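Example 9 (inverse folding). The structure is encoded as follows.
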């Protein structure tokens, strides 16, 4: 590489293999004390070598640079050019003048250590304090990365109970390994805070770690006009437009209305009726509603609400 006038031409010793992309740069004090184009007091020479050109070298390995040679490349009419390399940082100083080369002795450089050699999200220093193996991303062999366990308050040295692969600290039905794969929080039933339970989102192919777009509370993947939040509350499927909170009616042999509906266990439902749609609906009188669903299919025989004459309309609603 040829530098500015007075700085000579730098090259690697011929006995050393060429490295593609290597760069040498000399940095000098300013202003120079000597007469131009003479050169004095070079502070240091920077050697830049692309890491991917060094074969199998790994972080922490030692790299030996053979010899850096300064040789004259310009002769602006002077008989001599003075070149002095201040290498006190290396333990010695070199100087020379005239047309002969100035040689900087070979250097041994240790490449920086990788702060996280096993790429588990914990630095080696952190692993030393915790007691995990800095060369193994999963010290206890439970399939959970040490860093992930630490970030989520689990023990990376235990593979049993809530700390293990199948542990479920938040009780949402999703094991630790699955939560790690999904990017959700094993200690929160609603990792992204969108009001949709992680287990419900996973069941219907939504992303429990995203609260935007189709994955959010306002999303409507099946385009039926009901948002994810409404579908979850109603116990319907967000990816099935035909799935809805629907009251089904059939008549028993004695003409008593038999009402049934898809329900969410633990949700409370209220039966309403109207004999005149103009005046609206009201709670059905004389019934055991609102009632708590104990199965995914609830039913009710509307004996006490059977009108003596005329039409009657029923509907079911979820009680907040």
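The amino acid assigned to each position is listed next.
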């Amino acid at each position: 590489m040829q530098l500015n006038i007075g700085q000579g031409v730098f090259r690697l010793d011929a006995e050393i293999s060429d490295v593609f992309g290597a760069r040498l740069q000399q940095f000098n004090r300013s202003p120079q004390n000597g007469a131009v184009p003479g050169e004095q007091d070079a502070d240091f020479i920077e050697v830049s070598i692309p890491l991917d050109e060094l074969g199998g070298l790994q972080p922490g390995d030692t790299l030996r640079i053979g010899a850096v040679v300064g040789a004259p490349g310009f002769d602006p009419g002077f008989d001599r050019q003075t070149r002095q390399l201040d290498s006190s940082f290396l333990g010695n100083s070199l100087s020379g003048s005239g047309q002969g080369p100035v040689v900087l002795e070979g250097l041994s450089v240790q490449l920086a250590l990788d702060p996280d050699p096993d790429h588990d999200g914990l630095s080696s220093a952190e692993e030393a304090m915790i007691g995990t193996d800095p060369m193994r991303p999963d010290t206890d062999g439970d399939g959970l990365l040490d860093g992930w366990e630490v970030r989520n308050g689990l023990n990376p040295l235990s593979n049993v109970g809530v700390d293990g692969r199948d542990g479920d600290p938040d009780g949402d039905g999703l094991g630790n390994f699955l939560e790690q794969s999904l990017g959700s929080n094993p200690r929160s039933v609603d990792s992204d805070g969108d009001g949709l339970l992680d287990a419900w989102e996973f069941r219907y192919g939504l992303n429990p770690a995203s609260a935007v777009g189709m994955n959010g509370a306002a999303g409507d993947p099946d385009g039926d006009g009901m948002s994810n939040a409404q579908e979850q509350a109603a116990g319907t499927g967000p990816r099935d437009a035909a799935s809805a909170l629907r009251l089904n009616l059939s008549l028993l042999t004695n003409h008593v209305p038999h009402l049934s509906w898809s329900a969410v266990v633990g949700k409370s439902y209220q039966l309403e009726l109207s004999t005149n749609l103009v005046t609206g609906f009201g709670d059905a009188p004389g019934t055991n509603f609102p009632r708590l669903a104990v199965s995914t299919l609830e039913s009710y025989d509307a004996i006490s609400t059977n009108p003596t004459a005329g039409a009657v309309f029923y509907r079911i609603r979820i009680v907040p």
